[in-house]
């Protein structure tokens, strides 16, 4: 089993308070029409985001991307939005679509020191992990891309809040407005994996890291959390290419690796147990579970209706290699020899690890508009 390290945690806080080829993400009219407005949806006027490449909008680019992630900072990344911005996709991510749906401008990365943070801050860094580098190193797992783990991002958030408020009480008030003020706080956390055997042993520690971070945020005054489970790893081209099992019995009815999906579900069961413990400890907070696993499965199941190419659901749009998954760890998307499919909007996977802009839009709809995050993190107006 190839050793693959995939960080997949993300965290959002919603509050109702008043290196090459890179460019700022275009603020399309639909995504910036509400800029300057107060509380466009459900009283939310700011977002604070933590995570990895699922939601990084430019922090790793500013840290200095290296290794396999160096190609994410240049073309063809960002091709659907006019150029690379540090987003690991051909275009926008779920965090971008959520901001759009809330009527807010796109979230600026924390390391863009000249940016406007009036509507929140994005602390996510591509390659970041839920466990810090030292903890992973003790288990023989290296983190070559960044040291900006969940703990580092959480400290950056604390530093930012301290610099922009006068006291811990003001921070609590900022994070926990009265319900009548329409405020919602949303934290989404996922997980990481390092090969099935190693990752199985790591899962309890990863879950503890996630729930401990959630406890800190709750202690700071957060009142509403959403903690999502993991994606079905057995449907992700990079994992499928690494295993490359020739036995048809290894695959489920969706065409995904059953064992890897079982592992992801094991993680999700432990995570939900941790969520139940958080609910008991913080009865005054709303702590929901967002089902990333079955939202992804639903996206695959309804692929044809969503306009995806049903014959290429587990094949990367951008990559290299003659295999079934168009994924080669040594020739990632953007590297010499890699190519891009003709219609990225018809693919689920962009580069074998990350999703296309179209897939992120579908996932956002499923999570925030179609009940796969429950209870609903945001009360959107009914159509």
UniProtKB/TrEMBL annotation:
<keyword id="KW-0378">Hydrolase</keyword>
<dbReference type="InterPro" id="IPR001087">
    <property type="entry name" value="GDSL"/>
</dbReference>
<dbReference type="InterPro" id="IPR036514">
    <property type="entry name" value="SGNH_hydro_sf"/>
</dbReference>
<feature type="signal peptide">
    <location>
        <begin position="1"/>
        <end position="22"/>
    </location>
</feature>
<keyword id="KW-0325">Glycoprotein</keyword>
<dbReference type="GO" id="GO:0016788">
    <property type="term" value="F:hydrolase activity, acting on ester bonds"/>
</dbReference>
<comment type="similarity">
    <text>Belongs to the 'GDSL' lipolytic enzyme family.</text>
</comment>
<keyword id="KW-0732">Signal</keyword>
<dbReference type="Pfam" id="PF00657">
    <property type="entry name" value="Lipase_GDSL"/>
</dbReference>
<protein>
    <recommendedName>
        <fullName>GDSL esterase/lipase</fullName>
    </recommendedName>
</protein>
<dbReference type="InterPro" id="IPR035669">
    <property type="entry name" value="SGNH_plant_lipase-like"/>
</dbReference>
């Amino acid at each position: 089993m190839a050793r693959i390290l995939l960080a997949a945690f993300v965290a959002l806080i919603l509050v109702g308070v008043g290196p090459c080829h890179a460019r700022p993400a275009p603020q399309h009219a639909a995504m910036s029409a509400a800029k300057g407005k107060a509380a466009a949806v459900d009283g939310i006027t700011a977002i604070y985001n933590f995570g990895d490449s699922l939601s990084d909008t430019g922090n790793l680019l500013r840290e200095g991307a290296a290794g396999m992630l160096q190609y994410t900072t240049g073309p063809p990344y960002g091709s659907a939005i006019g150029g690379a911005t540090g987003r690991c996709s051909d275009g926008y991510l779920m965090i971008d679509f959520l901001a759009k749906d809330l009527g807010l401008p796109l979230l600026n990365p924390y390391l863009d020191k000249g940016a406007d943070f009036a509507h929140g801050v994005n602390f996510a860094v591509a390659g970041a992990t839920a466990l810090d580098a030292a903890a992973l190193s003790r288990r023989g797992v290296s983190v070559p891309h960044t040291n900006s783990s969940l703990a580092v991002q959480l400290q950056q958030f604390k530093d930012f809040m301290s610099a922009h408020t006068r006291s811990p009480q003001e921070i609590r008030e900022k994070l926990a407005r009265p319900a009548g003020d329409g405020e919602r706080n949303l934290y989404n956390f996922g997980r990481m994996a390092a090969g099935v055997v190693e990752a199985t042993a790591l899962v309890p520690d990863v879950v503890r890291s996630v729930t401990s971070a959630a406890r800190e945020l709750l202690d700071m005054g957060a009142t509403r959390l959403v903690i999502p489970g993991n994606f079905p790893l057995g449907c992700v081209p990079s994992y499928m290419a690494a295993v490359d099992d020739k036995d048809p019995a290894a695959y489920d009815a969706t065409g995904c690796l059953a064992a890897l999906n079982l592992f992801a579900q094991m993680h999700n069961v432990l995570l939900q147990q941790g969520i139940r413990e958080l609910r008991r400890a913080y009865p005054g907070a709303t702590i929901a579970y967002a089902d990333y696993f079955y939202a992804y499965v639903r996206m695959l199941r309804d692929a044809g209706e969503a306009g995806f190419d049903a014959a290429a659901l587990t094949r990367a749009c951008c990559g290299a290699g003659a295999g079934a998954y168009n994924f080669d760890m040594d020739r990632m998307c953007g590297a010499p020899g890699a190519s891009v499919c003709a219609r990225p909007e018809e693919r689920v996977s962009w580069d074998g690890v990350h999703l296309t802009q179209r897939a992120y839009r579908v996932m956002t709809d499923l999570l925030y508009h179609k009940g796969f995050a429950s209870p609903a993190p945001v009360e959107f107006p009914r159509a």
